[in-house]
């Protein structure tokens, strides 16, 4: 079974000091202008040079004509409320600076994206950004504590797991990262066997989905659907065949069908 293709590749683009075209009229324009201002973009008109443009015109014909002109110049366009014309879309955003969570539906439903944003706003603690800043400040200490990149990734994954010392959904003191580094150790080699009852990734249990997301390598039969394997990290090693009796360092997952 082939994996499901992404309709878009999510990207975070730094716009501070960079020009972005904003073309339009009426009530659709100001929310986009405020968003661009928050990102530090320089809002310009169609006569300027820019790589991105937002078209917020109420008239369908005018919008389509403007989009065609811009695309002919090689400019990536967002056409407000016209997903079929869009090269990129603007997500709903949850901000815990420097953490940004972007929710997109490919233009299918802005209301759904907004509802998910509201749920995540209540779920993510206000201090999440403080934890991110502390991890950033501790990069040198992390490299010194765990010189091997794979070991460092495994240690962080274990520390950021639910109920672990750096669980991102739990409140933390400002020295939480330092205390974890002083006491923590890299997780030992560990293996798990996942027995699937369905080829549909939506039927994965929460535990199965979490293990796939954390795995360093996945052993599997050739018949395991790609849609299941795609729930793992992109850099997780995929190996066709059974898991060895003695697993390598990190988390190894063997995926089999019932």
Task: Name the features.
single chain, 258 residues, alpha/beta, 4-stranded parallel β-sheet, globular
Low-confidence stretches: none
Radius of gyration: 23 Å
Shape, principal axes of CA atoms: globular
Name the helicity range.
Answer: 25-40%
Please outline the major beta sheet: 4 strands, parallel
Strand line-up across the major sheet: 2-1-3-4
Structural class: alpha/beta
Terminal CA distance = 17 Å
Number of helices: 9
DSSP strand tally: 10
Question: What is the string of SSEs from the N terminus onward?
Answer: EHEEHEEEHHHHHEHEHEE
Instruction: Tell me the fraction of residues in β-strands, as a range.
Output: 15-25%
Mean pLDDT: 90
Question: What's the gist of this structure?
Answer:
The chain is an alpha/beta fold and 258 residues long. It has nine helices and ten strands.
Describe what you observe in this structure.
This protein is of the alpha/beta class and 258 residues long. 33% of the residues lie in helices and 19% in strands. It has helices spanning 29-38, 60-72, 110-123, 128-137, 139-145, 149-159, 176-183, 206-214, 226-229, and strands spanning 19-24, 42-44, 52-56, 76-79, 92-96, 99-103, 190-196, 217-220, 237-240, 251-257. It has a four-stranded parallel beta sheet with strand order 2-1-3-4, with helices on both faces. A four-stranded parallel beta sheet has the order 7-10-8-9, covered by helices on one side. The radius of gyration is 23 Å and the shape is globular. The two termini are 17 Å apart. The mean pLDDT is 90.
């Amino acid at each position: 079974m082939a994996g499901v293709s992404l309709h878009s590749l999510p990207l975070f683009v730094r716009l501070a000091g960079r020009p972005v075209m904003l073309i339009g009229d009426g009530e659709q324009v100001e929310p986009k202008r405020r968003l661009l201002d928050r990102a530090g973009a320089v809002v310009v008109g169609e006569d300027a040079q820019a790589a991105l443009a937002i078209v917020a015109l109420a008239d369908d014909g005018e919008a389509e004509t403007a989009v065609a002109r811009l695309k002919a110049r090689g400019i990536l366009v967002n056409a407000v409320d016209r997903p079929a014309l869009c090269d990129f879309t603007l997500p709903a955003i949850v901000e815990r600076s420097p953490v940004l969570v972007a929710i997109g539906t490919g233009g299918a439903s802005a209301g759904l994206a907004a509802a998910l944003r509201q749920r995540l706003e209540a779920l993510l603690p206000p201090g999440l950004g403080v934890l991110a800043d502390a991890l950033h400040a501790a990069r040198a200490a992390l490299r010194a504590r765990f010189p091997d990149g794979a070991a460092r990734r495994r240690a962080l994954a274990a520390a950021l797991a639910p109920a672990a010392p750096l669980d991102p959904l739990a409140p933390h003191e400002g020295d939480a990262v330092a205390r974890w580094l002083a006491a923590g150790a890299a997780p030992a080699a560990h293996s798990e066997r996942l027995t699937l009852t369905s080829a549909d990734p939506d039927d994965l249990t929460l535990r199965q989905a979490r293990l796939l997301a954390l795995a360093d390598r996945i052993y599997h039969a050739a018949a395991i659907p790609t849609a299941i394997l795609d729930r793992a990290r992109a850099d997780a090693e995929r190996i066709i065949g059974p898991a060895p009796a003695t697993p390598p360092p990190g988390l190894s997952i063997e995926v089999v069908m019932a």
